[in-house]
Design goal:
- The N terminus and C terminus are likely disordered.
- The longest helix is centred in the middle third of the chain and has 36 residues.
- This protein has 1250 residues and is α+β, with helices and mostly antiparallel strands.
- Helix content is 49%, strand content 9%.
- The protein is globular and about 110 Å long.
- The strands form six sheets. Strands 2-1-5-3-4 form a five-stranded mixed beta sheet. Strands 11-12-15-14-23 form a five-stranded antiparallel beta sheet, with helices on both faces.
- Among the domains are: 84 residues, Phosphatidylinositol 3-kinase Catalytic Subunit, Chain A, domain 1 (Ubiquitin-like (UB roll)); 171 residues, no CATH class; 117 residues, no CATH class; 170 residues, no CATH class; 41 residues.
- Keywords: Cytoplasm, RNA-binding.
- InterPro entries: CLU-central, CLU_dom, CLU_N, CLU_prot, GSKIP_dom_sf, TPR-like_helical_dom_sf, TPR_rpt.
- Its main location: cytoplasm.
- It holds the Pfam family CLU.
- This is Clustered mitochondria protein homolog.
């Protein structure tokens, strides 16, 4: 093993934790600490809180909690929610807000913490007012529709509130099981309004008519001396107008009116520390409604209430009423446009905060958790602030640094962030492809920043970076390197090149730091020639610049060449055909691309290196076995006394073997396996020294090998979709499947050609459909980007709706309406200029676009960018030919471009009216791409857990996932994708181990988290709904289970249509649940549809298809239609017999079932004959029809979902675990056979799972 010199093929650094264990902790205390810390996080204790003027109450807190977090909890608690300005005291001493509770002396179970009112400052008063307004609007979904304050939609509780599983059996028949028409199989309607059902619990309880800032603000000097901070106007529900003074001591009514300033307190004087207390005293309606509102608010699940760390935008929204809101007015006031709400008027030094977090210690697990929590929190604040800034820049609310330049060349600084546009400024990107390259460079740079951030080298700093696409313009927001703006970039670059390799610098400090990243990022250390033909050593792409900031930190910028170039898209005239591998030529590569920044994805490099490593091991192993054979042969020939020379020759032989193998697989070292790529092979202007010509040629060949590997291995590997391990349903999930295989989206054309070639193309028709839709929508997105850049701000909704009409409407009418704002403005201007010609709306560039012109441009773009030929004359033909859905296309384009459309039914088929009017475009949101910081220790635990589960150690896996969940929650908060993954796995494991209540509770959280973080109609959310329905059924909540499945089916129809494998699964489950609820006709409808889809997507001879036949047979049997039942069961039996043989359990069971059906049919026939023969009826008992039992239905549901249950006792599980631990890796099949022996379980063949 040592001889082979293994360098494991991973892109991330091998867990530095283990090395640290040895260095810092000889006793390996670290091993214990994960469990200790998890316990610390989870063990809570109860304290008593004493608010002023009311009774104390008990509160559960955790030892890890900071005092500041306890402060937040109290601001959310029903009793103390209206207080914001207070300190906490224990035994008369005030607690420091940044202390953890477990480290405070005297704070133990039952300790009394006093809540002490503090005096207000203007900032405190503003925060108090904001908090009160938030409480008043806490049930209003407007923030979720508008995409602000971390709010997003969640509808799960809408479906789960009714049934809690405690209905008696006799009440079951009252449940209405029939779904709305549009959910039934075969229905072509795809309504949009059910996507966001109307919730009664969201109807806001109005507590006040108006609460605004008074026009008397700010207080004059003499009133400041009396402690006045600001004045408010309130109109109560009783129509009483109040003028309120906010002072340092609290709130009271004053004697001012709208036109008369009299700041003296009204009589009787009521001074309250909280605004809510004051309003409760003066308005009975406020008191009643506010307490009802808070009761409703605290009844909401925390996952519905918490703010998400990254804003999620919804692509549909109802037309909402716009309400008066003084806080909103105050916050968007121009003087502090969009600055951080907690630091009003102050700017945060984002660079210092982000770099400071990265420099925190990371030796112990506790340190790492604190560090990662700080990084995550600062990053999410940074993304929110930078997004707000980017929108402000495009809206024209920020003054440029260079106002004299053309608009697309302007740069901005706002809130200590630097903003620039994704255009080719000063022709810097001309050699790479101009504007297209500048646009792509932003994302390449972001990927580079993510790569260096995940390697996380101490002392090497990257800038906080996000990319925002908004209204057709790409904005890059970055933190500012201290001192960089004071001198020109040419002066400050001490490593890398600013002019494509004409002048190149290097620096020992950067070489040392970047050298540490070369191995994990697989970058080849190389030399390039500078302007004086002197070789310069680099450990990165030549465009990567190293800068020493004024703060003494080493920063790297412009990381667009972090990953190796993709030679398939680097078309050059000089490339000789013999250098291009055959695989690439057969696919028609290399191709001309819009820019020359196309690079390979990290996942591809990972797969390629793994593939090469397997080749390497194989070659060495074969060579060694040959050597051994030779040495045995020589030993036999010689005497038994071995001469020392032979041992040397075998060692030398081994060394030669390794050198040969290294050369064959393209390793950079000849003593061990180590593959690296030179990122500068395709960089324009870079020159290599002639003596390295052969070396450079080798590196180029390695890049071609990787490009060929993508086409020959990774694209065909997408047949994963055949066995349904990957099940894309829309553009987002397709992209993610492609990326997991390391395939870039620009290969969609190649993928479509491959799909056309495969034999099972019918079984992959859903993938083909999504690919074609993706090509069309992405091409339309590219056109939409330039289309929007010419639109004047007043015409946005008109222009966007016109574009959508040209794209999706069957109507030939183009623009026929134009907005009142534009018309009235033009009319008044026309009057003023006495008839001088005013350009009409249709004179605008955007208004001249026609459907046929747009379609022509989409076809051209699809050919140029994706190398796919769309051979249809218009969109209607494509939709007809490939069975696409217009509503799904609308969803895709809206999500990709940030359009928000009105929630209503769209009639796409109308030939005489455009589908979209101006009012239908409700909003446009920024589409944001940013880094995804996470918890490294938790990720490792999760990986260990997955290995444990694969080895059958379910309980161990469960424990590891629980620990990972705790760590993830502590770093990222509960609304995060990684937390979602843990909850989902815990739900699944609990269910398999028979803990249905736990499974239900975990999965409920997973669904809410998915809805909040990914979106209410994301395919992952649909899958989560499906599993929750299964767990609900197991827990006896049958009607809830049915409603959840209906919701999942509706969402699936909206996202991908009925012709999809996911619908087959849902319909089988729906058929079973309806069977259990004795709705046989409905059940048959769904099961029949499932049978047809299963036949199409799994194949007519698959075990899944047999199972579908069997399910239909059971329903027909229950109905007493034995002929149909026999027919379906015979089909099932013949499939089982041909696929798994006569002796298999499934075949035997099917055979038994056929016999029983035949007997029942005979009994029934006898009874019928008996009735017709008019003989006395005493002799023959009436035939019995079986009614479905929930356990039997549940067993079939588990088979449908591919879950095999393990009902073992605790002792058996423990015995099993000790037995399994001895083996390194146990195949799942072995585990199952083992279980079958242990408990003689009757489970269906493993194949049925597939």
């Amino acid at each position: 093993e040592k001889e082979i010199g293994y360098s494991p093929p991973t892109l991330t650094e091998e867990t530095p934790k283990d090395n640290r264990l040895e260095q810092s902790d000889p006793d390996k205390r670290e091993q214990l600490s994960i469990r200790d810390i998890v316990e610390l996080q989870e063990t809570g204790f109860i304290v008593r809180i004493q608010p002023p003027g009311t009774e104390s109450f008990e509160l559960q807190v955790s030892g890890q909690m900071l005092v500041a977090e306890l402060h937040q909890v109290l601001m959310d608690h029903e009793i103390t929610c209206h207080r914001t300005c207070f300190s906490l005291q224990l035994g008369g001493a005030t607690l420091d807000s940044l202390t953890e509770l477990h480290s405070i002396q005297g704070l133990h179970e039952g300790a009394l913490i006093k809540l002490v009112e503090d005096s207000y400052s203007v900032r405190d008063a503003r925060l108090h007012l904001r908090h009160v307004c938030d409480l008043l609007r806490s049930l209003d979904p407007a923030d979720s529709y508008n995409g602000v304050n971390g709010s997003s939609l969640s509808y799960l509780t809408f479906y789960t509130r009714g049934d809690k599983g405690n209905r008696r059996a006799s009440e079951k028949e009252y449940v209405d099981c029939s779904p709305p028409e549009y959910i039934l199989p075969g229905c072509k309607d795809r309504p949009l309004t059910p996507l966001q059902p109307i919730r009664d619990d969201w109807k806001p309880l109005q507590c006040l008519r108006v609460l605004t800032m008074s026009s008397w603000n700010p207080p004059p000097g003499n009133r400041k001396m009396h402690g006045d901070l600001m004045y408010l106007n309130v109109l109560t529900m009783e129509d009483r107008e109040l003028n309120i003074t906010s002072s340092t001591r609290g709130f009271y009514l004053n004697q001012s009116t709208a036109f008369n300033f009299n700041p003296k307190p009204a009589v009787p004087k009521i001074l309250c520390h909280s605004l809510v207390e004051l309003l409760s005293q003066v308005s009975p309606a406020f008191r009643k409604n506010f307490s009802a509102l808070q009761k409703k608010r605290v009844q909401q699940h925390p996952y519905e209430r918490f703010a998400a760390p990254f804003q999620v935008f919804t692509w549909t929204a109802p037309h909402g009423d716009h309400t008066l809101d003084c806080v909103r007015v105050e916050e968007t006031h121009t003087s502090r446009m969009g600055q951080d709400k907690h630091t009003a008027g102050q700017s945060r030094d984002w660079n210092e905060e982000l770099q400071g977090c990265r420099e925190l210690p990371r030796n112990s697990l506790q340190d790492r958790l604190h560090r990662e929590r700080s990084i995550f929190k600062t990053s999410s604040d940074f993304v929110a602030a930078a997004t707000r800034g980017a929108v402000a820049v495009i809206d024209g609310n920020v003054m440029p640094l260079n106002p004299g330049e053309a608009p697309h060349m302007q740069m901005f600084i706002w809130n200590n962030l630097f903003f620039s546009f994704g255009f080719d400024i000063s022709e810097h990107y001309r050699p790479l492809g101009g504007n297209a390259a500048a646009h792509a460079a932003a994302i390449c740079d972001l990927r580079g920043v993510q790569a260096y951030a995940s390697v996380d080298t101490e002392g090497l700093h990257t800038l906080g970076t996000i990319v925002v696409d908004y209204r057709g313009i790409r904005v890059i927001a970055q933190t500012i390197v201290p001192g960089l703006l004071e001198k020109s970039q040419e002066q400050s670059v001490i490593y890398g090149s600013n002019d494509y390799g004409s002048t190149v610098f290097t620096h020992p400090r950067f070489l040392e730091l970047l050298d540490k990243t070369c191995k994990p990022l697989r970058i080849q250390r190389h030399q390039v020639l500078d302007q004086n033909n002197i070789p310069v050593e680099l450990c990165s792409g030549v465009e990567t610049k190293g800068i020493l900031g004024n703060d003494g930190r080493s920063y790297i910028l412009d990381l667009l060449r972090t990953f190796p170039p993709d030679l398939n898209f680097q078309f050059s005239e000089t490339e000789e055909a013999k250098d291009v591998p055959e695989e690439c030529q057969s696919f028609g590569y290399p191709q001309q691309h819009h820019h020359s920044l196309a690079s390979l994805r990290p996942e591809l490099i990972e797969a390629f290196v793994q593939h090469r490593y397997e080749l390497y091991v194989k070659m060495v192993a074969q060579g060694l076995s040959q050597l051994e054979e030779q040495s045995e042969a020589t030993e036999q020939n010689e005497d038994l006394v071995c001469e020392p020379g032979t041992r040397d020759t075998t060692t030398a032989g081994r060394r030669d073997l390794i050198v040969k193998a290294c050369k064959a697989v393209g390793s950079v070292s000849d003593s061990c396996f180590d593959i690296r790529f030179n990122p500068d092979i395709c960089s324009p202007g870079v020159r290599f020294s002639p003596e390295f010509a052969e070396e450079v040629q080798k590196q180029r060949k390695l890049l071609w090998d990787a490009a060929a590997f993508l086409l020959s291995n990774q694209i065909p590997a997408l047949r994963d979709c055949l066995d349904h391990t990957a099940l894309p349903m829309d553009g987002v999930t397709l992209t993610s499947v492609l990326h997991q295989h390391g395939v870039n989206v620009r290969y969609l054309g190649a993928l479509l050609r491959e799909l056309h070639r495969v034999e099972e193309r019918e079984r992959l028709s859903h993938i083909k459909r999504i690919c074609i839709s993706e090509v069309i929508i992405r091409s339309a997105k590219h056109i939409f980007r330039t289309y929007l850049q010419d639109v004047e701000p007043a015409a946005f909704s008109a222009a966007v709706s016109h574009f959508l009409n040209c794209l999706l409407s069957s109507s030939t009418c183009v623009l026929d309406s134009c907005s009142d704002e534009l018309l009235s403005r033009r009319r008044s201007r026309r009057r003023r200029s006495h008839g001088s010609r005013v350009p009409l709306l249709t004179d605008s560039m955007w208004a001249r676009l026609t459907p046929s012109e747009l379609w022509g441009r989409i076809r051209t773009e699809a050919g140029d960018y994706y190398h796919y030929t769309i051979d249809s004359e218009n969109i209607d033909e494509v939709i007809e030919k490939h069975d696409l859905q217009r509503i799904s296309l609308l969803r895709e384009i809206a999500i990709k471009t940030g359009i928000q459309v009105q929630l209503r039914e769209y009639v796409f088929e109308s030939r005489h009216r455009p589908v979209f009017g101006e009012e239908d475009v409700v909003n446009m949101f920024p589409v944001v791409k940013h880094l995804k910081p996470t918890a490294t220790d938790a990720t490792q635990l999760l990986q260990q857990a997955q290995v444990a589960v694969q080895q059958g150690l379910l309980k161990d896996g469960y424990e590891l996932i629980s620990q990972a969940l705790t760590l993830f929650s502590s770093v990222c908060g509960v609304l995060h994708e990684d937390v979602c993954v843990c909850l989902r796995l815990l739900g699944r494991l609990s269910y398999i181990l028979g803990e249905y209540a736990d499974a239900l509770s975990h999965q409920e959280k997973a669904v809410m988290s998915s809805e909040r973080v990914l979106g209410i109609d994301h395919p992952q959310t649909i899958q989560d709904y499906t599993y929750l329905a299964l767990y609900c059924f197991a827990g006896g909540q049958h009607s809830t289970s049915l409603q959840l499945l209906y919701r999942a089916r509706y969402l699936t129809l909206l996202v991908s249509g009925e012709d999809h494998p996911q619908v087959a699964l849902l319909d089988s489950m729906l058929g079973l649940v309806l069977h259990a609820l004795m709705e046989y006709e409905l059940s048959l409808k769904f099961l029949q549809n499932a049978l047809n889809l299963t036949s199409k997507y799994r194949g007519a001879t698959s075990l899944r298809h047999a199972h579908s036949h069997h399910l239909l047979a059971t329903v027909y049997e229950t109905k007493g239609e034995f002929r149909s039942a026999l027919q379906h069961e015979k089909e099932a039996y013949s499939i089982y017999k041909s696929q798994v043989g006569e002796n298999h359990d499934s075949t035997r069971e099917s055979s038994e079932y056929l016999k029983s059906l035949t007997q029942q049919a005979v009994v029934l026939q006898k009874a019928i004959n008996h009735i017709y023969s008019n003989t006395p009826s005493a002799c023959i008992p009436p035939p019995k029809f079986s009614t479905p039992s929930p356990p039997a239905i549940l067993q079939q549901l588990n088979l449908t979902c591919g879950i095999i249950l393990i009902p073992l006792s605790a002792k058996e599980v423990a015995d099993l675990r000790t037995e399994m631990k001895g083996k390194d890796k146990v195949q799942v099949e072995e585990l199952e056979n083992h279980l079958l022996k242990q408990k003689d379980l009757r489970t269906a063949h493993k194949g049925q799972q597939n």
